[in-house]
Amino acid sequence: xxxxxVTGACGEIGHSLLxxxxxRGNNTIIAADINQLPxxxxxxxxxxxxGDISNPDFIKQLExxxxxxxxxLAALLSTSAERNPELAHQVNVNGTMALLMMxxxxxxxxxxxxxxxxxxxxxxYGLKSLTIKNVAGKLTEDEHLKPTTMYGxxxxxxxxxxxxxxxxxxxxxxxxxxxxxxxxxLRFPGLISATTLPxxxxxDYAPEMIHxxxxxKPYSCFVRxxxxxxxxxxxxxxxxxxxxxxxxxxxxxxxxxxIGAFAPSAEEIAAKVKAAFPDADIQYNPHLRxxxxxxxxxxxxxxxxxxxxxxxxxEYDMQRAFDEYLIPTISGVYAG
Length: 336
Ligand code: AKB
Hints:
Layout: E1 3-7, H1 12-24, E2 28-33, H2 39-42, E3 47-50, H3 56-62, E4 69-72, H4 78-83, H5 85-110, E5 114-121, H6 130-136, E6 138-139, H7 150-169, E7 181-188, E8 190-192, H8 205-214, E9 219-221, E10 231-233, H9 234-246, E11 256-258, H10 266-276, E12 282-284, H11 288-296, E13 300-301, H12 304-310, H13 318-334
Parallel strand pairs: 1-2, 1-4, 2-3, 4-5, 5-7, 6-13, 7-11, 8-10, 9-12
The structure holds 2-amino-3-ketobutyric acid.
Residues 77-78, 121-123, 151, 188, 190, 201-203 line the site of 2-amino-3-ketobutyric acid (AKB).
């Protein structure tokens, strides 16, 4: 029985993660979000708390629990962060720092390191031109780390902050005689859920296109048809988080891992959508700023390290994601 904190519990990953924890049972789940957790999700958790992670009083309230694991999902995504960079910095960076320090204090109190799971993103990459992006192909964790957005900068910094905290406070050294933090980050591609829609991201065109078609609504896509970035079905995203959290620390050769699944262009996604919903009306109306953001992200990721260290492998390639997860589930959702 583990005591687990999930921040950003109302978000897309939070929604699926809480459901998975509920199916597995046997853990004490504390769900935190700035919004009220909907009743059907609240039924899945032990305690639901509402508050702002950048508020020290809220951190104090959370600190009463002896967490074994923290899934820190709360963040402003890329498009939202561009609209409000100061708030993004406050939530994405200051909120993360506050939770890392809280985890350290809990680790000192209990004598057990807190496993701190951090969803990072392909937004940490910054390719200078489409030509460079096309030539670069699949990127490893350490290439082209020149993010062009507030969100990418925040996430890259927090990857490094978490690694620093783990190195300084997560090992037995003269400075620290208790291991208090074990930080582990995953660089997520765009996630596609069949049951929820994202908000404020720049990879949102893929889920929006699919959900619009399932509801018989027209969709105006905000990127060009040839735009290519990696995507992943939500069940694989949740699987990766849980698998990395459970991996023995001696197997891990790094603190941040890429994970890949499939990397279609927008028109390849549209073709899949039209195959499932032949009346789908999809037009392209690129938005310059959002287009520039996704053009700076990698076309695909090299996830060799995750495969080698903790046995990562996506269950859903593009065909399986559409045929066995997205289309049947979404059709069910909108059929009521
Ligand atoms: C976003 O679009 O901001 C996110 C991401 C790729 O991290 N979905």
